Amino acid sequence: MFIGVPKEIKPQENRVGLNPESVHALVKAGHSVVVETNAGQGIMASDDEYRSVGATIAKHADAVFESADMIVKVKEPQPIECQKLREGQILFTYLHLAPDPEQAKGLMESGCVAIAYETVTGEGARDLPLLRPMSEVAGRMAPLMGAVYSAKHFGGRGQLVSGVTGAPPTNILILGGGVSGFAAAQMAVGMGANVTITDMDDDRLSFLNDHFDGKARTAKASEYDLVKELPHFDMVVGAVLIPGASAPQLISRAMLKIMKPSAMLVDIAIDQGGCFETSRPTTHNDPVYEVDGIQHYCVANMPGAYPLTSTAALNNATLPYVLAIADKGWERALSDDFGLSQGLNVKNGKIVHAAVKSALNL
Fold first, then answer.
1. Containing structural domain, residue 147
2. Which residues are catalytic?
3. Residues 284 and 202 in one domain
4. Which residue in 45, 246, 309, 354 could disulfide with 98, CB within 3.0 to 4.6 Å?
């Protein structure tokens, strides 16, 4: 199969769909790979490094899209990229279609076969193997970014997360105890914060309680308790995910009025629409905004800030699936792997994933 890797064009996105190690594996398996020039610049992989493992370098994205049977990316295709896709061409990347009807329309009109990393499933309902590595990165980033932008000169409360002798640490609430929430809790505990994690799943709460062994408090998620306890927290991390669907909005605008002045909301779920009513996507260049005196950090591609780590982790997870699709073709690869079949979002001009269809009211 002919596999294409365009340079990511979303603002401040420094990751790349395939690193040289993955290209080497694909070429060794008998496939051809074309990489857009400077696609690996964000991970400090030169065109020559890609050439050395057997890739062809294309001067423009058009050449990549025109020649490839499968496009492997990181972020969802931007409108100009949707226009380059063609009927029957395979697109394998993060899509996050639930809050993005325009992208969904572009993909349907292209006639491509779009397989989304974020809805590929593993052994259990909560196991999303291609979302997991980026959820870990975003989760661990959340308290770090929240801590940075809690500084007074950024409009925050001016409270150091760890506290110091005679001054208390920050109180951090993490909504959702899945992969990203767990990673956020690990980082926040390590930073010395007072951490509370909420989740709806009793088994997950039991795991979290055992893991943190008193270093973080666990609580069953409920709107009643959230309203009662929200005034005590300096930072809230939104980490709730429903695969393929829009994220539930757990904090309304009205609830901002009961929060501490200049408290920080960090929305890891912004790619799926966000956990807070007042969330809107931001960029690394302009990551924070204020609503009703509350700071919001809602960067839609958080792992793009650490592309070396993120690309390596993502490729470790995606490469076996890329190889399966390239070796077998998409239909047989999906037929042979139920979990991979759950990644199919668009086919023959239609949305075919149930949760995405529901979120888009199709």
1. 132-304
2. 96, 271
3. yes
4. 246
